[in-house]
Amino acid sequence: MRSCQCPWLWEACSRMWQPSVCTWWGPSGERRLELPSPSAFTRLVEFIKLSSEDDIVNLGQGFPDFPPPAFAVEAFQHAVSGDFMLNQYTTAFGYPPLTRILASFFGKLLGQEINPRKNVLVTVGAYGALFTAFQALVDEGDEVIIIEPFFDCYEPMTLMAGGRPVFVSLKPSPTRDGELDSCSDWQLDPVELASKFTSRTKALILNTPSNPLGKVFSRAELELVASLCQQHDVVCIADEVYQWLVYDGYQHVSIASLPGMWDRTLTIGSAGKTFSATGWKVGWVLGPGRLLKHLHTVHQNSIFHCPTQAQAAVAESFEWEQLHFGQPSSYFVQFQQASQRSRDHVMRSLQVVGLRPIIPQGSYFLITDISELKSKMPDLPGATDEPYDSRFVKWMIKNKGLGAIPVSIFYSAPHRKHFDHYIRICFVKDESTLQAMDKKLQKWKDELGP
Question: Start and end of every Aminotransferase class I/classII large domain (predicted)?
Answer without folding.
Answer: 55-435
